[in-house]
Amino acid sequence: MIDTHAHLADKRFNSDREEVIKRAWDNNVEEILCICSDYAELETFSELLKKHDFIHGAIGVHPHDSSGYNEEQLITAINDINPSALGEIGLDYHYNHSPKDVQLEVFKKQLNIAKTRELPVIIHSREAMADTLKILKEENINNGVMHCFSGNEREMRECLELGLYISIAGPVTFPGAEKLKSVASIAPGDRLLIETDSPYLAPQPVRGKRNEPSWVKYILEELSELRNVPRDELERQTAGNARSLFNFNKK
Ligand SMILES: [Zn+2]
Predict the structure, then answer these.
(1) What is the pTM of this model?
(2) How far is the CA of 200 from the centre of ligand 1 (A)?
(3) Which of 27, 88, 137, 139 is the Cys-Cys partner for 122 at CB 3.0 to 4.6 Å?
(4) CATH number of the domain encompassing residue 201
(5) pLDDT tens digit string along 113-155?
């Protein structure tokens, strides 16, 4: 399995980070894409990438932090890390921690960096799907993933038309997540990714706990049931998709 979205440098892993990573490896997690969207985590993040061959990096400024966007700092980090993707970036109109217009501007700037560097993008979109899709179309973005997808079927189709992947996280396991379950059951297999978004969004069997990459298995199990596809086949397919989107070998 490949966990395509985990915040392993988050301080909530400070006390037992190496144990969490070992559990992931012991539970058949072959690669982890670790996301750094907070400069405070940068040092821990870059140490993790150096230490573990199966942990890869993505870096970008989260929409929450758009107000503090510093392009020079981002470019320096990209040059140092040589990441597998740029992200997570996007729009979050739920929290609106940064004003909308600033979020829009910073999102566009980072999409342009991704294009120049030929990096896939990891998109965070919360209660902002219309604007997100509009910008992705305007900027001709066709290389990336909608992380923790939460849209409807029509929005999924628009993302697929752009050429993007759909990544399914823990909420698909929640009872009552009917819209997401239905989207996850029909998303084309060659565009499907799985992720934990650790330490957030622990899946149903462990809901409320600190999430970790080894629990990506619960998402795979749920998808296997929803899609009526054997677990090992889905595992191969989603891992293959992750490897073709993110150039893990470049590290
Ligand atoms: Zn995230």
Answers:
(1) 0.96
(2) 8
(3) 88
(4) 3.20.20.140
(5) 999 999 999 999 999 999 999 999 999 999 999 999 999 999 9
